[in-house]
Structure formats: C-alpha cells, structure tokens
UniProtKB/TrEMBL annotation:
Domain ACT: 4-84
Signal peptide: none
Gene Ontology terms: biological process: 'de novo' IMP biosynthetic process; one-carbon metabolic process
Positions annotated as active site in the UniProt record: 223
Keywords: Hydrolase, One-carbon metabolism, Purine biosynthesis
Domain of life: Bacteria
Gene3D superfamilies in alphabetical order: 3.30.70.260, Formyl transferase, N-terminal domain (3.40.50.170)
Provenance organism: Acetobacter cerevisiae
Lineage: Bacteria, Pseudomonadati, Pseudomonadota, Alphaproteobacteria, Acetobacterales
Protein name: Formyltetrahydrofolate deformylase
Pfam families: ACT, Formyl_trans_N
C-alpha cells in the first residue's frame, strides 16, 4: 500500500529517526521525503511518501507512541483513495473547464463529485461530464439557507475539499471557519494587491505592469487566507481592462489547478497564516 504521512511538531533532536524507525518496523520503503524547520516558531514540518505491506490501522498504531512523545499534529493518507471535490462556479467557466480536463487526463488525481453554481451556465458542461449539477441562486434573503444546503451536500458526498473556481459569492464567516483548510479560492489578482471585486479593473486604473492570480485557502477575512500558489503575466499601457481580464483567464486556470493538485497530494501544510509547500 502507498501512503503519505504529514506531521508538524515542536522541533528537537530525534524526531526523524523515531518516525523512520517506526515505519521501518512495518517494512516501509520511503519513496519521498521533505522537511522544513521553522527557526522562528521552533517547529518541524515533514512529509513522507512510502509503501508498506502493513494496513493503515497498523501504521497508525506504530506511529501513535511517536506522535504522543513528540506532541505531533499528524495526518496519514492512503494514496489509493481519490480525494472528493465539490467545484463551485458562477458565470466564468474557464477554471472549471481546466479542472475537468486535468482530472480526465489523470494529472489531477481526484474525483469531482458535484458542481454547484448560482447560475445555470455550466449545467450542460456538468451533464456532458456526467457530474451532478446543483443550481442554487443566492441572494441576501436565502444565503444562510443555501449554505445549509452546501453543508449538507459536503456531508452527503463525503467531500474532502470545496474549490471555488471563480464562484463570485462570499461565504459566511461561520462556514469559512467551519471548513477551515478545506476550501480553496482563486482570486484574480496577485494578492495582497487588489483585493475584492473587479481586481483587473483596479490594476488597469493603477497602470500596473504585472497582473496575476492567487489560489488561497478561504478564511473569514476576504481574500486574506493562506496563499498556496501564485503566477503573474506582464501587461503594457496599450492593453485595455478587458485585455487584462482575457490575459488573466489562463493564469487563473493554471494557478488553481496547481493549488488543488498540491492540496490533494498532501503537499500543503499550514503554518499560522503561511503555508509550507513541499513541491
């Protein structure tokens, strides 16, 4: 069986040796390892990919004494189990289409269990892909009700991650907190610049020479969640605000797909308001 182990703990000598010894006792063959020691926080972050004839229950049991001794926050993932995604989209579908393609060609090893939208525009796309589609219009009067439906859908589908692929509704503070670390948004600017609505038009008004896109975890603070991935493109004075929007579509699609891939492969670890990326 193929597993991925991630953990963080207060940094001190003997941690790596203890984990490696415990895994070796179960016949593990370590295929990949990354580690980072935050000297400011005095905390160690580590990711290991390994194969072993042992079951997940056996691995958990052998690691439990190590986890307790070093006060670890630990996660063990069976690589054979595909993460389950809910994709949320509004009118612009470029990021959704790229995610569907990357899953289809197996570059992104995940299962899209449903697509949710506040518009009907992507219903045909979902039908063609054989994915259930939920059209849930949102307004100020039904926002809480629709979030309750989304909460129930996460439970019903056993979704591991919600991906906001240009979903142009702000989730409530309560839902964002409840789903902390399980919602990824693509924002169409190089954060922390140009937060909020119409960032390309904000960038055009300021005459910037670089535009970009940022994939980040959703928190109650709008567009301020921990950043997973970013990319930029050069623009000039000769371009219009609409040209900025057009140039940004491919950046957004690529950045979001890379961020989701990093997440589902257990390569992202939260370190306060920052992320550790083991790419």
């Amino acid at each position: 069986m193929h597993f991925t182990l991630t953990f963080s703990c207060p940094d001190k000598p003997g941690i790596v040796a203890a984990v490696s010894t415990a895994l070796a006792d179960k016949g593990a063959d370590i295929l990949e390892t990354h580690q980072f020691s935050d000297r400011t926080a005095h905390r160690l972050f580590m990711r290991l990919a390994f194969t072993t004839p042992a079951s997940m229950e056996d691995i958990r049991a052998c690691l439990e004494p190590v986890r307790t001794e070093f006060n670890m926050t630990m996660r063990l993932h069976d690589a054979a189990v595909l993460p389950r995604l809910i994709i949320m989209v509004s009118k612009f579908d470029h990021a959704l289409l790229n995610l569907l393609y990357q899953v289809r060609v197996n570059w992104l090893r995940a299962e899209i269990v449903t697509i949710v939208s506040n518009h009907q525009d992507s219903a045909a796309t979902a039908a063609q892909a054989g994915i259930p589609y939920y059209y849930w219009p949102v307004n100020k009067d039904n926002k809480a009700e629709q979030e309750d439906r989304l909460r129930a859908l996460v439970s019903e589908t056993k979704a591991d991650l919600i991906v906001l692929a240009r979903y142009m509704q702000v989730l409530s503070d309560a839902f964002s907190t409840e789903m902390s670390g399980r919602i990824i948004n693509i924002h169409h600017s190089f954060l922390p610049s140009f937060k909020g609505a119409r960032p390309y038009h904000q960038a055009f008004a300021r005459g910037v020479k670089l535009i970009g896109a940022t994939a980040h975890y959703v928190t109650p603070d709008l567009d301020e969640g921990p950043i997973i991935e970013q990319e930029t493109a050069r623009v000039t004075h000769s371009l219009s605000a609409e040209d900025y929007v057009a140039a940004g579509r491919s950046i957004e699609s690529q950045v979001l797909a890379r961020a989701v891939k990093l997440h589902v492969e257990q390569r992202v670890m939260l370190n306060g308001h920052r992320t550790i990326i083991f790419s």
